Amino acid sequence: MAVPAEKLSLADYLTWEEVQTERHEFYRGEVFAMVGVRRAHAEISGNLFSALKSHLKGLPCRVYTESVQVQVAHDTIFYPDVFVTGDAADLQTDRIFHHPKLIVEVLSDSTEGYNRGLKFTAYRQLPSLQEYLLIDPDSRRVEVYRRNERDVFELLDQTGRSALHLSCVDLTLAMVDLFDGVDPVFPVGSAGA
Predict the structure, then answer these.
(1) Cβ contact 172:163 at 8 Å
(2) Please, how many CA atoms are within 13 Å of residue 173, restricted to the half-sphere of its CB?
(3) Do 30 and 113 lie in a common domain?
(4) Do 70 and 20 belong to one domain?
(5) How many domains does the chain have?
(6) Residue 105 near residue 111, CB atoms below 8 Å
(7) pLDDT at site 34
(8) What residues contact residue 80 under an 8 Å CB cut-off, 6+ apart?
(9) Range of 171's domain?
(10) 93-117: per-residue pLDDT in tens?
């Protein structure tokens, strides 16, 4: 079924989305189809999900992938690639989560601007959010935006480091494990080309 041309209410979107075969995000009455992912995107999301799931075992937090939604505002619902919540209400819901402490987006050429711009602006409104992680599979750029004591998100660039550290879940993950199964992309004319 095609994406609705007219603006929808949140209730109408939720009813419509429930019967769709593809996923759609909702922002201020508009519906946006989610694009398919490349293998590198799936590998990185899977690697991080697996590491977080193992690390959080026995703790009152859970990790979820892009198949469930996070409601950011009364008129905004997204499907993060990976997120962690420890909120009691979130741990009882089946469909829509509200209090993630960590959100991860794996970038592509078509989603980078959206994830850095509109989505990050919306995600910052969540009082529960402590860290926002952006991963670029091609450049292997790894950026952690961490909320500081002044309630401002600071960039902690992890690019080129041997390990990624996520303080909100106290996880340190070797970059080789994060990028396991993903071939490096070399610029044309470089030594690896």
Answers:
(1) yes
(2) 23
(3) no
(4) no
(5) 2
(6) yes
(7) 87
(8) 66, 70, 100, 103, 104, 105
(9) 39-178
(10) 988 999 999 999 999 888 899 999 9
Burial state string for 28-37 with b = 16 or more CB within 10 A and e = fewer than 16: eebbeeeeeb
**Do the domain assignments include residue 193?**
no
Q: Which residues pair with 44 in a beta bridge?
A: none
Average pLDDT over residues 178-183: 94
Residue 11 structure tokens = 């209730």
Do the Cβ atoms of 71 and 46 come closer than 8 Å?
A: no
The verdict on 154 and 73 lying in the same domain is: yes
74 and 164 in a common domain: yes
> Would you state the structure tokens that stand for residue 152, as one six-digit string?
């401002």
Residues whose CB is less than 8 angstroms from the CB of residue 172 and which lie 6 or more positions away in sequence, other chains included: 163, 164, 165, 166
Cα dihedral 137/155/124/76 (nearest 10): -20
The H-or-E segment that residue 25 falls in is strand 24-27
Q: What gap in Å lies between CA 69 and CA 74, rounded to an integer?
A: 13
Q: What pTM was estimated for this model as a whole?
A: 0.91
